[in-house]
């Protein structure tokens, strides 16, 4: 009997640990059935779960999303229409139609929603990823339905996240073609550390569009001072110069847009 | 009991000093180089999310570095002491087996705590050099890592007493570590399945410690604070492994 005391005590202690854990732990993460892994991503997802490193692997997926969105797109019809000519060097004096693909975030990027959603499937608390994904879909690519789907998914796991509600409202106003209301809906988020620079840029652009040059200049100044993304910083500095010139020339006040 | 506590402390201090003098302990340097290299890459790739990426990468790397050393040490120390006959010398003195085992375990945990503390300081220094402050819930993340290491180290001690080599102990403990992070997924699958499959999965939930309970570095905001149940569970699992190891060591003839 005494020989069995130690293993019995060991089992009891172990069972107590498991019982406490079962009573206390509720997973804050999406169940495995919700994880839709993009091609060639299964290994990364396994590591994310196996090492308990969801945040780290969500970061990796987010970097991949930014790289995907930052890469120029190539379409099949480019060849058929001679569309790849824009890649060839220009002959001296040649005038060519400028293709804006990818420069301001427009484009098709068919995997964007899947990839953005996957970041949230791995780490549903990654607010910046949700805001960046929804903002890009709605305001750069004009895919408002997909942006709303993404935000609704994010809200399932962070129902108290006011920034998601603000972006949802902004998307609603953008559908109603009301840039002033879109800018107003984004405005409370601008000083939040979770606000992606892409949304700040959008707010600055909208303020400029409706004639609120001082507000636009303040946002561009904030981007130039705080962002680590040199593309945004350079653009903000250019816009600040333009706005300074416009303001000194006595630009008109806010325009009525509706 | 009052007489044996200094014995536990002596074994723990000896074990701790032995670990610190170990060449494998230079993992610190590996961590420092990896963290600095990653910071350069992260700065280029993550742009405005550099702080988050650096913080997540550092915390994960610290835990894995400490885990590598803790498992290496726990899987080999008892075997090595038996092979070098050091254990005979210890047991020829008035050192009870429970005190020896408790001392060894305490020494390992102190080493893990030291590793996490030093790597944490290096990590925070790196973040400061890159212009960032202390990430939210950083201390909770480190405490959670230490609790995980406590559970897995004591389990590795238990396994090392019946496995045939240090490598098999490392492999078994590594699998246990991995499975421990799948607790929520296992529970979900158990709820979805029926019959023998469901029973097997429910048994796995009871047998494998839920390491997600301590995973403060993956939680957000207020949820990152570890609940008292996390500390109690860690203590119970560590005690379970310790008692199992004590049972095995008490049956061995030294």
What does this 3D model show about the protein?
Chain A has 258 residues and is an all-alpha fold. Among the domains of chain A are: 105-176, Serine Threonine Protein Phosphatase 5, Tetratricopeptide repeat, CATH 1.25.40; 181-258. Chain A is built from twelve helices and no strands. Chain A has helices at 5-24, 42-50, 54-70, 76-80, 112-122, 127-140, 144-157, 162-175, 179-186, 197-209, 213-226, 230-248. In chain A, helix 6 runs parallel beside helix 10. Residues 77-103 and 254-258 of chain A have low confidence and may be disordered. Helices cover 76% and strands 0% of the residues of chain B. Chain B has one domain. Chain B has ten helices and no strands. Chain B is mainly alpha-helical and 254 residues long. The model of chain B has no long low-confidence stretch (mean pLDDT 89). The two termini of chain B are 23 Å apart. At the A-B interface, helix 1 and helix 3 of A face helix 3, helix 8, helix 9 and helix 10 of B.
Layout of helices and strands, plus pairs?
The complex is a heterodimer of chains A (258) and B (254).
Chain A: H1 5-24, H2 42-50, H3 54-70, H4 76-80, H5 112-122, H6 127-140, H7 144-157, H8 162-175, H9 179-186, H10 197-209, H11 213-226, H12 230-248
Chain B: H1 5-21, H2 27-45, H3 50-83, H4 86-91, H5 97-129, H6 138-160, H7 166-180, H8 183-192, H9 195-207, H10 228-251
Helix pairs in contact in B: 1-5, 2-3, 2-5, 3-5, 3-6, 3-7, 5-6, 5-10, 6-7, 6-10, 8-9
Are there runs of chain B of 5+ residues with pLDDT below 50, and where? none
User: How many domain units of chain B?
Assistant: 1
Order of helices and strands of chain B: HHHHHHHHHH
Beta content of chain A comes to under 5%
Shape of chain B: globular
Query: Could you tell me the number of beta strands of chain A?
Result: 0
Radius of gyration of chain A over alpha carbons? 24 Å
- Major sheet of chain A: size, sense and barrel closure? none
Tell me the structural class of chain B.
Answer: mainly alpha
Distance between the termini of chain A: 87 Å
Beta content of chain B? under 5%
The unreliable regions of chain A are: 77-103, 254-258
Number of strands of chain B: 0
Biggest sheet architecture of chain B = none
Largest contact between protein chains?
Answer: A-B, 45 and 57 residues
Helix content of chain A: 55-70%
Task: Give the integer mean of the pLDDT values of chain B.
Answer: 89
Which geometry of chain A do the CA atoms define?
elongated
């Amino acid at each position: 009997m005494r020989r069995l005391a130690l293993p019995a005590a060991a089992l009891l202690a172990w069972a107590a640990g498991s019982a406490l854990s079962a009573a206390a732990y509720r997973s804050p993460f999406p169940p495995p059935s919700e994880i839709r892994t993009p091609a060639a991503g299964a290994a990364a997802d396994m590591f994310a779960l196996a090492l308990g490193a969801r945040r780290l692997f969500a970061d990796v997926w987010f970097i991949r999303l930014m790289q995907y969105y930052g890469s120029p797109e190539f379409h099949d019809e480019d060849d058929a229409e001679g569309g790849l000519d824009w890649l060839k060097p220009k002959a001296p004096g040649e005038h060519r139609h400028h293709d804006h693909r990818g420069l301001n975030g427009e484009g098709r990027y068919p995997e964007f929603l899947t990839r953005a959603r996957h970041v949230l499937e791995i780490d549903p608390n990654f607010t910046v990823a949700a805001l960046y994904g929804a903002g890009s879909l709605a305001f750069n690519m004009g895919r408002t339905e997909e942006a709303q789907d993404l935000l609704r998914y994010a809200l399932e796991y962070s129902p108290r996240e006011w920034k998601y509600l603000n972006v949802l409202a902004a998307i609603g106003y953008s559908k109603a073609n009301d840039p002033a209301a879109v800018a107003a809906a984004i405005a409370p988020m601008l000083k939040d550390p979770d606000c992606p620079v892409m949304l700040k840029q959008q707010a600055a652009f909208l303020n400029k569009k409706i004639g609120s040059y001082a507000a636009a200049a303040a946002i561009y100044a904030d981007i130039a001072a705080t962002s680590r993304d040199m593309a945004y910083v350079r653009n903000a500095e250019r816009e600040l110069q333009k706005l300074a010139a416009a303001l000194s020339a006595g630009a008109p006040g806010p325009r009525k847009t509706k | 009991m009052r007489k044996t506590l200094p014995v536990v402390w002596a074994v723990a201090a000896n074990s701790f000093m032995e670990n610190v003098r170990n060449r494998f302990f230079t993992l610190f340097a590996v961590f420092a180089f990896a963290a600095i290299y990653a910071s350069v890459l992260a700065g280029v790739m993550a742009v405005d999310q550099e702080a988050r990426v650096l913080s997540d990468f550092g915390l994960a790397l610290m835990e894995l570095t400490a885990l590598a050393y803790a498992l290496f040490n726990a899987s080999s120390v008892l075997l090595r002491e038996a092979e070098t006959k050091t254990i005979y010398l210890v047991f020829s003195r008035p050192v009870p087996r429970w005190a020896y085992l408790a001392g060894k375990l305490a020494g390992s945990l102190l080493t893990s705590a030291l590793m996490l503390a030093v790597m944490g300081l290096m990590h925070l220094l790196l973040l400061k050099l890159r212009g960032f402050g202390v990430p939210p819930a950083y201390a909770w993340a480190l405490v959670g890592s230490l609790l995980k290491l406590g559970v897995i180290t004591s389990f590795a001690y238990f396994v090392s007493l019946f496995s045939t080599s240090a490598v098999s102990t490392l492999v078994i403990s590594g699998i246990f570590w991995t499975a421990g992070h799948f607790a929520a997924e296992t529970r979900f699958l158990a709820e979805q399945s029926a019959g023998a499959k469901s029973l097997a999965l429910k048994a796995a939930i009871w047998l494998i410690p839920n390491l997600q309970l301590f995973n403060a570095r993956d939680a957000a905001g207020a949820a990152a604070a570890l609940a008292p149940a996390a500390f109690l569970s860690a203590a119970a699992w560590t005690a379970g492994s310790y008692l199992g190891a004590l049972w095995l060591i008490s049956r061995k003839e030294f």
